[in-house]
Amino acid sequence: MPRLSEIDRHRALGLFQAGLPISEVSLRMNVNRMTLFKIKRLHEADTVSDRPRSERPRSITQRQDTNLVRNHMNNRFLSASASSRQTRGRNNQRISVNTVRRPLSTSGLRARCP
Fold first, then answer.
1. Which of 57, 89, 95, 112 fits a 20 to 30 Å CA distance from 1?
2. Which domain holds residue 13?
3. Has residue 76 been placed in a domain?
4. How far apart are CA 88 and CA 106, in angstroms?
């Protein structure tokens, strides 16, 4: 189900402030009543924008990022696939080639093929 846009949220708040009950606003805007209850509650907390979401946990630590960059600085012809085979992520998981390439690209490096 698509999210209610911020404009529609403000429109619903305007209808609330005009004195319309939630059931009437629900019928006019074709929105579920529970959605409107949540919008009203968020407005009482001084915001109608979405709260920030938690991100996916990183598969390697910052220290491992630094070590990957250092290894590729010392050996310019080290491939990303070789690094991914040698490096283990959190909980001893394998890491993908793109996980190796990401910290290298932020450091201005590329994994080279021999």
1. 57
2. 6-44
3. yes
4. 20
Classify 96 in phi/psi space as left (phi over 0), alpha (psi -120 to 50) or beta: beta
CA torsion 109-73-57-84 (nearest 10°) is: 100
Q: What is the pLDDT along the chain (114 residues), one digit of tens a residue?
A: 467 888 998 899 899 889 899 999 999 999 999 989 888 887 777 665 666 778 888 899 999 999 999 999 999 889 999 999 999 988 889 999 999 999 999 999 887 765
One-letter amino acid of 107 = S
Q: Helix or strand or coil: residue 10?
A: helix
Tell me if the pTM is above 0.85.
no
Which CATH number do you get for residue 12?
1.10.10.60
Distance CA 64, CA 84 (A): 11
User: If you write DSSP's letter for every residue of 51-112 in order, what string do you get?
Assistant: PPPPPPPPSS-HHHHHHHHHHHHH-TT--HHHHHHH-B-GGG-B--HHHHHHHHHHTT--PP
